Amino acid sequence: MSSHFYVGRVVRRLRWLLWLSIGLKTGYCIPLYFQSALSAAFALLLSAGTTLLEFTLIFYWLYPVERAQRALQVTLREYLQARHGLVWDALAPILTAGLGALTLVFTLSGQYRAWGTLGVATAGAMGLGTLLIGLGLIRRPTPLPLRSVAAEARLLSEAQRLGRALGIQVNAILVLDGTRLRNANAFALSGGRIAITDFLLAILTEQETLAIIAHEVAHLAQRRRLARLWLLTGGAGVGLTGALAPLLAGLPTGWLLLWLGLLVGGMTAPMLRLRRLHEREADAFAVSQYGAAPLSSALRKIASIHQRAPDAHGDVIHPSLLERMAQLERYSQT
Ligand SMILES: [Zn+2]
Fold this sequence. Notes:
3 strands, 73% helix, 334 residues, single chain, mainly alpha, binds zinc ion
């Protein structure tokens, strides 16, 4: 294996592959979308299932490489589980919006009547599926196994002070097992909980840890705004689809594809904008508490652990490390 082959880079390219895969499937399922709401729902679920399967194969291939290169200590099963989370994060919003819209069209247009009892049961199953996947988006479970080590009391009381400054309550700091996956990360979870991996705790100084915690406390405070926007766009999408259902059902169902695309785009665009703004606000809050230096050195350490080049874009929400550090400097001067 060439030394230029970095698993970190491959994993980031996989994001593009994921969107390519989703786009291609949307394309070749067009005939199914043209038939009926039910066949469109079938196409949607089949596409999601195939995408999960494709990525299982890719991760299956990547596991020995990443295990050797980054000294992972996880079993294949644990590895697949952790990596699937990334794919599911992309699929879940699409499934929620798509399945929700199709359920409405299926029921409101009266298409379900053609199937008798089976139609009613199918409509119920589609609605329930939408609800469950949607709920999963709001309730965020711990992304990694819990480590049975309590965070230091000092850390929690400082996090609670930061929470009070932002008008929210911090209930717990969970330590997650990131050592075996070599995952240096922190997360804001539901229920006023913050999670940090033991691997990240081990490489950061106390000031750096606090800066990261401050960033996550800010995310906790932003959760309500995020949920409100989600309800607003979701409600607007469902309401519009409901209002247009008779029209959508009367047209060739292929229009559904266009409608779904608009719906998903219309719901994700404001969400992404808000989340990008939230990232900047969270960084600015951490800088306001501890200055730019600890957050900046913590971010550098995290980037090097995950083999991230300083000028490489993180993802759709995070800017590159260089851009982010330039911003930190600006926050510290204001
Ligand atoms: Zn963040």
